Amino acid sequence: MTDLLQPAPKGFRSGYVTLVGAPNVGKSTLLNTLLKEKISITSARPQTTRNRILGVVHRPNAQMVFLDTPGVHASAKAMNRRIVEAAIATLAEADLVVLMVDLTSHDTDAENMLLKHLPSSGTPVLLALNKTDQADRETVLAAIAEWSSRYDFCDIVPISALKASQIDDLLQAMAPQLPEGPPFFPEDSITNQPVRFIAAELIREKAFRLTGEEIPYAVAVTVEAFVEEPEKGRVRIHATIHVERSSQKGIVIGKGGAKLKEIGTAARGDIERLLGTRVFLKLFVRVQKNWTRDTKALRRFGY
Ligand code: GDP
Ligand code: MG
């Protein structure tokens, strides 16, 4: 695990990108195309369709960190609500949102719901019109006209995720939308996943899932220590769960620490599967007002 980053060239941009869209529009396909290989955590985690998958794309002038949101279902059914909330939470955290739609079919409910939740200010939203290989020119032009009238996208790029066509155009349109700053992850993290970050995501997901309705999706996790201890055959991880109010801290910790233990055990299992090694996980809970506002800043410090 190295934290050494190359000094960024002047004008380098880096940021978190959230890919959203109705189910089956091609989000996973795009991510796989971008990374040119299946992301290993998919196989490591059988229930992964409900979780976020991360990929890092390096360009000479930019680094994009992708969060693949769970399929966004328009259904308000209780079972899907959290998934929708999780997807919407990633919208708020992203520096750039890429909305993907399918040129060959419409999931109107899901699209309307997504449009409703797109950032109304600040965060740019780029529209990717996918499956050009199955759509003629007129369809593409009509879709561009229709979608431009529905939302003020920073750009609209037709692509085929499956045939890997116009992916470069997409990345070129994305790069200038990201904030200027050094890369978050070293360049080899295309194959070596930024496990430290994924570990934080796994803990966050468990905290979110295991605390029930009382805790909003708005829980941040930072990893303070990620130390390989080969002599003990394990990785030692110290992480902090940030909540906004002390009442939430109580819920996350639970009676006699039971809830925190449950979160830790579940997260540790996932991280062990991801790393293929034993993990010693120590969790802290901290009340930090307005962390939501500070999350992007925290991440810039390398969390
Ligand atoms: P997700 O639910 O948004 O992650 O969608 P997937 O990536 O799982 O894709 C759903 C289906 O659409 C799969 O059968 C893909 O092979 C197919 N698909 C994705 N991108 C394209 C594309 O550019 N062209 C065509 N023809 N099919 C695509
Ligand atoms: Mg998918």
What does this structure look like?
With 303 residues, the chain is α/β, with parallel strands linked by helices. The chain is globular. The chain has two domains: 13-177, P-loop containing nucleotide triphosphate hydrolases (Rossmann fold), CATH 3.40.50; 195-300, GMP Synthetase, Chain A, domain 3 (2-Layer Sandwich), CATH 3.30.300. 38% of the residues lie in helices and 22% in strands. The strands form two sheets. Strands 2-3-1-4-5-6 form a six-stranded mixed sheet, sandwiched between helices. Strands 7-8-9 form a three-stranded mixed sheet. Residues 1-5, 37-53, 73-79, 189-193 and 297-303 have low confidence and may be disordered. 39% of the residues are buried. Residues 27-28 line the site of magnesium ion.
Q: What name goes with the CATH superfamily of the largest domain? A: P-loop containing nucleotide triphosphate hydrolases
Major beta sheet summary: 6 strands, mixed
Which ligands appear in the coordinates?
guanosine-5'-diphosphate, magnesium ion
Strand content: 15-25%
Count of DSSP strands: 9
For this structure, the quaternary state is: single chain
| Helix proportion | 25-40%
- At the first level of CATH, the class of the largest domain is Alpha Beta
